[in-house]
Every structure is written in structure tokens, then in C-alpha cells.
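pinging the channel bc i need a second pair of eyes. not urgent but kinda urgent?? the chain im working w is below, pasted from the shared doc
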Amino acid sequence: MKRILVCLALLCLLLAACGEAEAPTTTAPAAPSLAGVWVNAGRYSEGRDFVETLTLSEEGKVTVHLEYQGADYATLTGTWTVSDGVLKVDFTDPNTKDRVYTYTLTENALILTGDGKDVEYQRSR
């Protein structure tokens, strides 16, 4: 009888060891999103101040607003898409050239590379 109990105990241990181990639950941090309000502010080489605000909505709309020397200068609108690490901006105004950029994105910075130069934006919201 003792032998049967020992065999049953070993069998239970073996069955328990064969069960699936529960994987620890961890949540990977979400990748930063391009959607948001991005600001590039500075001074042109001739000493004139500018603030460029790039707004990329979750719905694929884009607005680019340029403030030059403290006054509204221009606002452009259109749509944006991303594919294979490339940001494509299609402007509504037919006289404005559509843009294609490669980009580097962190949580608080967006660097657009296109037309032979880099432009760095900081996340505003």
C-alpha cells in the first residue's frame, strides 16, 4: 500500500511538472506616435526668428503653421501617411510641393530628413 501511495505521489509531481508554466505578464512600452503637435523654433542665418508648428492628427490630417518675426506668415493643410519609415505629406494647395521624408522619432523629438537637410521638432503635446 505504501508503495502505491509513493507511486501516486510521484505521478502527481510528474503531471504537475508537465503543466504549462504561466508566463510573466509584462507590457512593452508603446512606441512613440508621429501623431501630435511638433514645434521647430529658431533663427534664420540673417537673424530673423521663426516658429514652425507641425500638427499631425491621428486621422491623417496635417497642418503646418509658420510664424515669422512674431506674426502669422503661412498655414498649409493636407494629409499624411507613413509606410516603411517614410513620412509622405500631401498638401491641399496645388501650388505647394508635396514632401517625402525619412524620419527619426523619439518620445519628445522628431527629426525629418528630406531635400538634403535635417529639421528637428520637439513634441509640444
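so The two ends are 73 Å apart (CA to CA). and The beta strands are 36-43, 49-56, 61-68, 71-83, 86-91, 99-105, 109-114, 117-123. — does that match what u expected or am i reading it wrong
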